[in-house]
Amino acid sequence: QALYLKSHNEFSCEPIRLRMCQDLPYNTTFMPNLLNHYDQQTAALAMEPFHPLVNLVCSADLRMFLCALYAPVCTTYGRVSMPCRSLCLRAKDECHKLMEIFGLVWPDDMECSKFPDCDEPYPRPEDLLTGSDTTDQPSMTVQRDYGFWCPRELKVDPDLGYSFMGRTDCSAPCPSMFFNQQELTFTRYFIGVVSIVCLSATLFTFLTFLIDVTRFRYPERPIIFYAVCYVMVSLVFFLGFLLEDRVACNTVSPAHFRAPTITQGSHNKVCTLFFMVLYFFTMAGSLWWVILTITWFLAAVPKWGSEAIEKKALLFHAVAWGLPGTLTVTLLALNKIEGDGISGVCFIGIYDIDALRWFVLAPLCFNVAVGVSLLLVGIVALNQVRMEIPLEKENQTKLVKFMIRMGVFSVLYLAPLLTVIGCYIYEHAYRSMWETTWMEENCRRYHIPCPYKVEQISRPSMVVFLIKYLMMLVVGIPSVFWVGSKKTCFEWASFLHGRRRKDGVNESRQVLQEQPDLAQSLLREPNTPVIRKSRGTSTQGTSTHASSTHLAVLDDFDEPIRTSSVHSKTSYHGSLRRSRDDRSDSVVYRGTEKNSFHGSGQRLDRPLSTHSSPHQTEGLSKHSSQRDKTESPPALIIHGTTESGSQVVDNEGTSA
Fold this sequence. Notes:
This protein is 54% helix and 3% strand. The protein has 656 residues and is mainly α. The chain has a two-stranded antiparallel ribbon with strand order 1-4. A hairpin with a 2-residue loop joins strand 5 (163-164) and strand 6 (167-168).
């Protein structure tokens, strides 16, 4: 019986060097043999447990049966001669008791049912006739591509589900198959320093938000969540630097690992945790940048206000946290986790090109495409607003300033991210060549077949990996440039000295931002000068484009605007005038007293507004008691001042 195997369509006959198989009717064999041993040295190691049985001659057929499997006769190309099932059964039955004494078990790949049902000697006469034609050929005249054979040192327990370079139950060497120890040490310290810088920058951004949570509202709120994501990313890389390769690599264990190998799957709990945090927050950070461009688009194009965008916050959170969570759970189910011996963390796509392509490159490229599109549309829309809508010079300048800040922030984010994507594409394109080069350099060390017809060799550049890790962390630093301003310095100074901002300051800012139409209508009364105490708040822009103007004033300083508790517009403008001019002389207060409410002298003992001090009220009472007998009843003023009232104020201001 003869079987034709596609894997043996190109092979050469080589002399038998196995000690047990000398002095046989044939003297040439081929590799890989019927048990998939790729060379005679590996076959000899596998035959060692059977040496006592052969020496004791427990069966006359055992030696021939073993040689038929470990060193089969070399016949015509493409034809493999298999031993008969009867030969296997005789050897197994006759040596069964002796195998129990030596504690041996008949291997599964030698099970007799796998061989053809015949009763012929081995080798058959036709095998010897055809084999003689190829005996004189040199063993290396016809070479073949064996592919990658997993070395014995890298084989792992089949229950772990490992795979490496297309071979199951195999793992990559640790800490790295491409770089030496000196290069690895430098890279680890480099990653450690960069992770500390990124952790400090992003943590500063988040703490600045916690000091004043009302400062960063939509459309800029996603920057805070983006910073939180990269706090976690940089923290994982920093922990990987501290732990070195203790998490990413399997230590030598007689039961499972013959040599240090890369961790795969979810059996290592710490490695699984590192992967979940790193992958989840990397994808979430990318999505929060996309959401930032969406909110920027909504504020710039359809002119949505801060409150309208904030109503969609639940949807933003569901997408930004839900999609990365789904991808993370999917990768856990697929058992795609891999240790990174260079950085000490666990991620995906380090050795599995398919996982890199679909779970890293595809999401990042999609996010970049969507974000850049929305960003450009928003910039064009705001530029049209700046050119077509008549705004004050101050607001024009601030709108341009905001556009520049948004553009610079986006460039600072996109440049590192695009560099990371470029590094991933570089790895994706050259990974097979690097693996072939590694096989060429290590095949003799691991006793595995060397690559066939290697035309070009290439090793990865350490600089590329340094740039990749640098940009993976630097991409989180731009968040600190957004919060970096004098206002942030003042807030931190106040916080460190134990002084907190008054609630009234934020409330007044909230009133002006949330209700721009009301503020503008109050500040634009006839005969009343425009008072602008909240810097950057437009008082002459129309409500149609209030959201565009609002974009330009998100990060300006807030100054207190004193608002009166009374319902008269006269009191409102009076409080604004007092806040601006900071006047405290009694003449102004007497003028204000005479032109407030219904002119009743009985109300002089009450404060005119919620911001009037007791001292001012007392002064007003004293002056009014002396003037009530001689002054005429004050006129009621609704908008602005009456002629008589303004005359009194002007005269007394001149005398003062």
